[in-house]
Write a sequence for this structure.
């Protein structure tokens, strides 16, 4: 997957350093929680957030869906370990590493660039570090999370990666600063 | 003449002169000017021509309500028609041109319409263009279209960029006058997030012009101080050049920011549309001065009294040397005082009130200006510029008592609160008879989802005309919205504002009140659309009693200014004509946006390459560089065919079909939907989703399945593979993946929530390639890695493995009738895999093929295509697919619907093959002609073509179609329509044209 970068008034960068899995299972289940803890050493996140240990992230997609992000070189082993730990439970684990693309939006105005494209409230007060949300970015679906105060990650489908990259570059175009965060 | 003054000009920077052109003439202005101010400073009072009569028109107002001074702005890719000169900031290099005249602004042949005005009464268009009917389309409409519209339509592609911005806050305050500033400050003090927007470049509204003092400070200083305090608040965002344009349900509001209208080419977006989500809105939108209706009130030089002093105070522009003020209220006396102070002459003030006014009048009289009480203007004299006024008794019919020479008439008929934003979402109005105005009814606000009001109005817009109550009201509304939005109210003193005492106005809707027809037919209500007092009276006389009907009949308030100046005067005339009180007549509906906003701002970033997201497969770039002729399919782009050299598309398709049948073809099938369904109840679930059985499919095997809607109509199809005991993989159509995924989730979440089934859409995780043709197996064996023999991987089986080192899943399925493998690999390896196939396949004659070849291959085999053979009214039984409908199952989606009498019935249009007798290709969608005609005199039909192609394999046209009782009529010849020529004969045949035994796929 191509690694792209655009230097606007924030920096847009494409990343492919993670494997991504979709887990469908009841997140309220203690067995599911235990399996995740055992395999990934990450707790199940609360609604609207993600949880992280090292480079491994669990993101809350819905009451019965998690997005799991594991460093690429550990992806295969993690997938196999999860399959084994969840065996016997009612779950569906699918590798979606190739189906999704991650961009980071980095800089003091990262939230502002998001606010040009997504109807969600991306302000620091409402969407602080550790927050995770699914939203709409112009005309496509996406998920977004706050890694650091000035660094947000956006995940979209691979088929629309060119569109999303162009969207982000347009929104980050120097001269189009809004400077209205309150 | 109008000119620049040596004094005044609070908004201009005389150190920065700007050069611009108007109708090609070079003019100069100052930084801070509005274009209207710059034009006036260059003695350009005449700014445009009216819509209907081409009357010469000058600027009337100083703000967004301006009806006359509309101009063509910019050139070519920066061109915009109907820009208001009053809200356009002058910049160096600005190019403006006046509108709606030929050959020139000064001499316009269209002005002949004015002489013909008695032949162009209200409703003229309705009366004239109705007969004869046949004239409408070819004569009337083209002529009306040609003359419609004031400005020219832009022809070049817009050079600028635009964007949206989603803003969340608790309180939005619209309007940056003293009321808006105070409301924002009071709301912000409660701790909630506040957005304050002001449509102009300047803060403070009218107060600095009208001599208000606040807490001992001049209004201007108080504004600057308050603005600085707001800017220092972390919870406040303030934005000028940003108009609150619309208020919608659920605290949604649109604001329109004009970022770079005054700095074109500086790289910034031109406009930004703020899509605001808030809990509470305060509209502090001020008020608009009403014109007075007297004969000749549209002659250039007649202006609103407030606008006259705006031009003097704000821009140091004198609209003329001698100004007659005509009024029914005290406020207009401020204009006289202002003009006096600027050293200009005011020969007379005409006050329609017999008793006159209060302190302001006394101040004027003390300056030696004559005030004529109980008088009105009978008529304004002049053509392209006012030369004088004829004075009469307001109570009379217009007998001229005296004539006064002047070049400006400053008129004031009182003030109308700007209630638009309050009304957008359902806020109601009450008629305030004392002030002769509609103002918001605080007991009937627009209601939010919780049933409580979410909009409040502050200041002038709320009907408070004096500055002290304006600030008190604003502070109270600001606190109230802060509280309603979750803030904490703290006590704070309200700044005390001071201005001159005023006595009540006297409503004047016609001047003089008994004006003759001749005078009434020159008394303008709607300046832009040329609607006069006489027109509204005629509408009432002809029975248009509803204000909404009278509006449409006369076009009152239907111009680009949406009647900001004309509505109240118009409905007052209507109410008098109907002899009904004004509140009973009511207002027309206020709809967003408040003033026209650019279409481009609504589109935002969605233009050019971002107009619509294009979904691309992993091999997209390869296709693009190998001659792909693209076809949109369900959001994707798929190659229709790959053109080589100078081939036509048809030639390419033919080559691809023959090559695939004879040798080897590759299809990028990555767009096919792929949905994993897993769980203990997955089999039961799929038996409900599909018409046939999926629970008894064995792991390692595939089955073609049909999905119906609950109404029994065929909705989607595809191959289902059973992966393991609890897991199935469902292929959907290319356009259907998201829809079918949602369909499955909906049933699982709303109906069968207790079934243990999980669903994941993995469409984009996999690249899929169909390897098709007699040489398919040879190629895969050459690449090596897995056993693809007929024994290990028979027809309708699948297996996991690797091919040339790439992990894959290979399905022995065929949509072409040939030996075929569909091979899925991780999407990131799709391109590598594809290129490897191309390279290794060269010796076997491999070529990629596109969707049209795919269609022909499947049509030759009689395979149906969702969307061709189906259209939402077709059931599987119509398509000869009864074999795929399980008789064993108790239920599946669509089963009961298919038992309805008209579905469970052979008397339907059913699928057959069609072959023309002459070998030609039938037209897509052509109808089969039946005997006789229906009740409407249309020929009867007995079927239609659903798919039709030239078959390169068979060398003739082939088609499928739905024909009444078709399968029982094999061999019968029927007629199909052909546009523009005689019907075509076609024989009903089996839909399977090629390899009916299926021997070629199963090898």
């Amino acid at each position: 997957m191509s690694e792209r970068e655009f230097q606007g008034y924030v920096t847009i960068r494409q990343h492919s350093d993670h494997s991504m899995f979709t887990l469908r299972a009841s997140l309220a289940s203690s067995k599911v929680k235990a399996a995740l803890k055992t395999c990934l050493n990450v707790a199940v996140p609360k609604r609207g957030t993600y949880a992280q240990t090292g480079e491994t992230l669990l993101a809350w997609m819905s009451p019965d869906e998690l997005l799991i992000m594991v460093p690429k070189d550990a992806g295969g082993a993690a997938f196999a370990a999860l399959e084994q730990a969840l065996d016997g439970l009612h779950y569906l684990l699918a590798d979606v590493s190739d189906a999704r693309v991650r961009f980071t939006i980095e800089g003091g105005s990262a939230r502002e660039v998001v606010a040009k494209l997504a109807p969600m409230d991306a302000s620091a007060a409402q969407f602080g570090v550790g927050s995770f949300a699914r939203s709409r970015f112009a005309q496509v679906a996406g998920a977004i999370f706050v890694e650091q105060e000035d660094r947000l990650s956006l995940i979209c489908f691979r088929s629309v990666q060119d569109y999303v990259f162009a969207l982000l570059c347009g929104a980050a175009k120097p001269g189009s600063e809004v400077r209205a965060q309150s | 003449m109008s000119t620049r003054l040596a004094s005044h000009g609070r908004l201009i920077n005389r150190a920065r002169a700007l050069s611009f052109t108007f109708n090609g003439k070079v003019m100069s202005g100052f930084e801070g000017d509005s274009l209207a101010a710059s034009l006036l400073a260059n003695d350009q009072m005449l700014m445009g021509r009216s819509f209907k009569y081409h009357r010469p028109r000058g600027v009337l107002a100083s703000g967004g309500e301006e009806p006359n001074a509309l101009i063509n702005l910019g050139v070519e890719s920066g061109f915009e028609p109907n820009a208001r000169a009053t809200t356009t900031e002058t910049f160096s290099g600005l190019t403006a041109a006046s509108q709606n005249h030929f050959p020139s602004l000064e001499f316009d042949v269209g002005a002949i319409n004015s002489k013909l005005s008695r032949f162009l009464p209200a409703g003229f268009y309705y009366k004239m263009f109705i007969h004869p009917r046949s004239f409408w389309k070819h004569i009337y409409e083209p002529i009306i279209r040609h003359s419609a519209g004031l400005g020219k339509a832009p022809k070049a592609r817009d050079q600028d960029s635009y964007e949206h911005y989603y803003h969340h806050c608790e309180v939005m305050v619209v309007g940056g006058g003293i009321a808006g500033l105070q409301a924002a400050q009071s709301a912000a003090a409660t701790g909630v997030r506040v957005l304050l927007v002001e449509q102009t470049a300047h803060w403070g509204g009218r107060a600095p012009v009208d001599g208000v003092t606040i807490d001992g400070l001049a209004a201007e200083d108080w504004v600057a101080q308050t603005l600085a305090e707001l800017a220092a608040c972390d919870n406040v965002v303030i934005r000028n050049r940003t108009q609150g344009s619309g208020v919608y349900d659920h605290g949604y509001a649109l604001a329109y920011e004009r970022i770079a209208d005054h700095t074109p080419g500086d790289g910034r977006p031109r406009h930004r549309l703020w899509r605001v989500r808030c809990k509470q809105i305060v509209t502090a939108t001020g008020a608009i001065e009403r014109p007075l209706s007297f004969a000749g009130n549209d002659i250039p030089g007649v202006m609103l009294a407030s606008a006259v002093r705006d031009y003097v105070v704000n821009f140091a522009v004198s609209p003329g040397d001698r100004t007659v003020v005509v009024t029914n209220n005290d406020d207009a006396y401020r204009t006289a005082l202002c003009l006096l102070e600027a050293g200009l002459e005011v020969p007379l003030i005409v006050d329609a009130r017999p008793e006159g006014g209060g302190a302001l009048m006394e101040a004027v009289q003390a300056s030696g200006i004559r005030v004529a009480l109980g008088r009105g203007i009978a008529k304004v004299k002049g053509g392209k510029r006012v030369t004088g006024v004829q004075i009469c008794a307001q109570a009379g019919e217009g007998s001229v008592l005296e004539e006064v020479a002047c070049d400006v008439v400053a008129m004031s008929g009182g003030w109308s609160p700007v209630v638009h934003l309050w009304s957008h979402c359902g806020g109601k109005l009450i008629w305030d008879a004392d002030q002769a105005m509609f103002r918001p009814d605080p007991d009937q606000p627009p209601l939010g989802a919780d049933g409580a009001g979410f909009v409040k109005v502050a200041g002038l817009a709320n009907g408070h005309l004096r500055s002290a109550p304006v600030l008190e009201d604003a502070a109270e509304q600001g606190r109230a919205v802060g509280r309603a939005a979750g803030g904490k109210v703290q006590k704070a003193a309200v700044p005390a504002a001071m201005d001159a005492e005023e006595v009540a106005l006297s409503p004047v809707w016609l001047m003089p009140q008994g004006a003759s027809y001749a005078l009434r037919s020159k008394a303008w209500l709607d300046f832009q659309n040329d609607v006069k007092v006489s027109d509204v009276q005629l509408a009432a006389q002809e029975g248009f009693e509803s204000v909404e009907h009278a509006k449409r009949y006369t076009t009152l308030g239907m111009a680009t200014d949406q009647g900001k100046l004309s509505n109240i005067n118009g409905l007052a005339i209507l109410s008098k004509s109907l002899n009904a009180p004004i509140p009973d007549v009511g207002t027309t509906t206020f709809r967003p946006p408040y003033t026209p906003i650019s279409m481009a701002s609504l589109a935002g970033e969605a233009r050019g390459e971002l107009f619509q997201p294009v979904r691309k497969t992993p091999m997209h770039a390869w296709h693009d560089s190998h001659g792909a002729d693209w076809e949109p399919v369900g959001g994707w782009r798929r190659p229709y065919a790959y053109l080589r050299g100078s081939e036509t598309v048809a030639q390419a398709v033919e080559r691809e079909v023959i090559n695939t049948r004879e040798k080897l073809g590759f299809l990028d099938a990555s767009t096919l939907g792929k949905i994993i369904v897993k769980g203990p109840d997955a089999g039961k679930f799929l038996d409900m989703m599909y018409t046939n059985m999926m629970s008894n499919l064995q792991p390692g095997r595939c089955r073609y399945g049909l999905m119906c809607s609950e109404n029994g109509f065929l909705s989607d199809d595809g191959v289902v593979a059973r992966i393991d005991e609890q897991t199935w993989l469902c292929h959907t159509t290319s356009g259907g993946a998201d829809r079918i995924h949602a369909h499955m989730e909906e049933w699982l979440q709303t109906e069968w929530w207790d079934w243990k089934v999980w669903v994941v859409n993995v469409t984009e995780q996999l690249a899929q390639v169909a390897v098709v043709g007699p040489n398919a197996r040879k190629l895969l064996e050459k690449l090596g890695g897995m056993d693809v023999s007929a024994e290990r991987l028979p027809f309708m089986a699948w297996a996991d493995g690797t091919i040339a080192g790439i992990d894959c899943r290979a399905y022995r399925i065929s949509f072409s009738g040939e030996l075929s493998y569909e091979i899925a690999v991780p999407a990131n390896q799709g391109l590598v895999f594809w290129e490897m196939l191309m390279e290794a396949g060269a010796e076997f004659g491999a070529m990629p093929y596109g969707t049209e070849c795919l269609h022909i291959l499947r049509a030759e085999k009689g395979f149906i295509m969702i969307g061709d053979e189906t259209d939402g009214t077709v059931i599987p039984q119509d398509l000869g697919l009864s074999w795929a409908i399980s008789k064993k199952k108790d239920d599946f989606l669509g089963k009961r619907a298919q038992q309805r009498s008209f579905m469970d019935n052979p008397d339907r249009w059913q699928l057959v093959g069609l072959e023309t007798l002459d070998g030609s290709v039938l037209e897509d969608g052509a109808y089969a002609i039946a005997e006789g005609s229906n009740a409407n005199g249309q020929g009867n039909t007995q079927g239609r073509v659903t798919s039709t192609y030239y078959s390169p394999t068979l060398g003739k046209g082939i088609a499928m179609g739905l024909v009444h009782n078709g399968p029982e009529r094999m061999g019968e010849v029927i007629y199909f329509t052909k546009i523009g020529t005689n019907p075509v004969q076609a024989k009903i045949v089996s839909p399977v044209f090629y390899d009916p035994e299926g021997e070629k796929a199963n090898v």
